[in-house]
Design goal:
This protein has one domain. 23% of the residues lie in helices and 37% in strands. It has 2 helices and 6 strands; from the N terminus they run H-E-E-E-E-E-E-H. Strands 1-2-3 form a 3-stranded antiparallel beta sheet, with no helix packed on it. A 3-stranded antiparallel beta sheet has the order 4-5-6, with no helix packed on it. The radius of gyration is 16 Å and the shape is extended. The N and C termini lie far apart (44 Å). The N terminus is likely disordered.
Length: 87
């Protein structure tokens, strides 16, 4: 599959590649569909597991080496703001 955005990416919705179903692939993001208990691997060292799904909330388990920072976006943004303010 090529990396396209817009209408072409929408036409590729629900395509299965290598046993993984994804809804859209663009230049910026690969959106995957996973069920509870299923995993996503990033490189050799990071594993994300769908721990539970309750309504519109998804609980994720993230296994990563200690030297790989893992933060929610709002926490990362606060860390970045604090860094900028202290410089």
């Amino acid at each position: 599959m090529d990396r396209r955005g817009g209408e072409d990416a929408k036409q590729d919705a629900e395509e299965r590649i290598g046993g993984v179903t994804f809804t859209e692939r663009t230049l910026d993001m690969l959106v995957l569909m996973r069920r509870q208990g299923e995993e996503i691997c990033i490189g050799d060292n990071v594993r994300i597991t769908v721990v539970s799904i309750l309504g519109n909330k998804v609980r994720l388990g993230i296994e990563a080496p200690e030297n790989v920072p893992v933060h929610r976006r709002e926490v990362k943004e606060a860390i970045d703001r604090n860094k900028e303010e202290s410089e």
